Task: inverse folding
């Protein structure tokens, strides 16, 4: 009983919903990560790769890839009873970048997935979020056979600010993908708190 009222009569607390983007280069594992962690059947907008796209879709390192995201991936995960994340996976190819501005509106933060075999492919995503002051972390998707480097090396190679977290992950693994999303939320919250701190003289 609370103040003479049964707790059964209390309305359930509406969860806070946050939007997180999952970005990165072509074939880096964005669709895989969203699918691995989503508690609902993820929405996917994948199309088969065509001969017409071969001149513009670089398949080096991902030769087995047969489909590509042409709009977005969408999923949802409940981190806590009162905290729900909506996940939006962005398309990787340059020709679909006009969609990014729409997807980025209202986003709490972003994950930039990276592949050490094609690290340069995530430069554009890093630059996009830096220019728009959207908090982001870098998650290195550890593909089989790919060289593994310390997080400090990846941070230096991407010329990231020291405050940008770099994590290793397996986009296929639910718990690993969940850890990445928790890290995005924590980083975004910490950055917001720092911005509210009064300036010292």
Result:
């Amino acid at each position: 009983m609370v103040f003479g009222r049964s707790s059964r009569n209390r309305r359930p607390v509406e969860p806070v919903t946050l939007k997180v983007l999952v970005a990165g280069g072509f074939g880096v594992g964005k669709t895989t990560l969203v699918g691995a962690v989503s508690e609902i059947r993820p929405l996917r907008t994948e199309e088969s790769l065509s001969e017409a796209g071969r001149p513009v879709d670089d398949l080096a390192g991902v030769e087995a890839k047969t489909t590509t995201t042409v709009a977005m991936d969408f999923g949802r995960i409940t981190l806590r009873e009162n905290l729900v994340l909506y996940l939006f996976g962005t398309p990787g190819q340059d020709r679909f970048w006009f969609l990014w501005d729409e997807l980025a509106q209202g986003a709490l933060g972003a994950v930039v997935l990276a592949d050490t075999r094609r690290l340069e492919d995530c430069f554009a995503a890093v630059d996009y979020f830096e220019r728009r002051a959207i908090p982001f972390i870098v998650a290195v998707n550890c593909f089989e056979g790919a060289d593994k480097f310390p997080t400090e090396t990846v941070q230096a190679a991407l010329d990231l600010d020291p405050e940008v977290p770099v994590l290793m992950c397996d986009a296929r693994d639910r718990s690993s993908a969940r850890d990445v999303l928790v890290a995005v939320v924590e980083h975004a919250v910490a950055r917001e708190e720092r911005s509210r701190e009064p300036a010292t003289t």
User: Anything to note?
Assistant: Helices lie at 30-37, 100-104, 123-131, 151-157, 174-196. The mean pLDDT is 84.
